[in-house]
Amino acid sequence: MTGENNWFETDKGQALAAEGVSLAAPWLWPLCGHNALVLQPCAQGLELPGLQCSPGYQLQRANGRFYGDVIADDDRLPLANECMALVLAVFVLETASDPAALIAECERILVPEGHLAVLLLNPFAPVRFTGVWSGMRLETAPVWSAMLRDAGLDLIRHEQLGSARLPVLRSVNFLLLRKRKSALTPLRKNAAAVALAREETSS
What we know:
- By secondary structure, the chain is α/β, with parallel strands linked by helices.
- Helix content is 27%, strand content 30%.
- It has a single domain, classed as Vaccinia Virus protein VP39 (Rossmann fold).
- Strands 3-2-1-4-5-7-6 form a 7-stranded mixed beta sheet, with helices on both faces.
- It is globular.
- The chain starts with 5 loop residues before the first helix and ends with a helix.
- Mean pLDDT is 87; it is low at 183-203.
């Protein structure tokens, strides 16, 4: 099957994606848990690093949808709430028809304090100006981070990956985020309990 994101199916696209995943591997390996989902940008798929979150499920983007272990759309991943310890999203936000909807779905399927690892194209990379990334949504890491934070995911690591000498010019932004744990609603203390607590503290 051939997808519509032709650049990721070229030799250069495959090489950049593979390099990004390989360089991100040291931060992926320590993550543990039950179930991992990998979202990939093209039908060929990528060679993935070892993951301690298992079992693993894979989806590849093609013809406007995801195919693989299930068939899915950006705004509807047919998976249960809070069923994944890790979601690895490899260059799928910038190729999404609705990135915010895909982010919301990733947040929904993550367990509390589960991890979302995202690889993104860096709009400051020199290759961007050759036009090969035209048609993709290119945003800076702070813009993506803000969108992810609004969805309930907190940034815990940002790395710039690639071979360029200056980090700002490297082709890939790697973001590692953690889903916020829902806080328990504190129980209200009645007036008598508060007064008793104050007496015990002052005595």
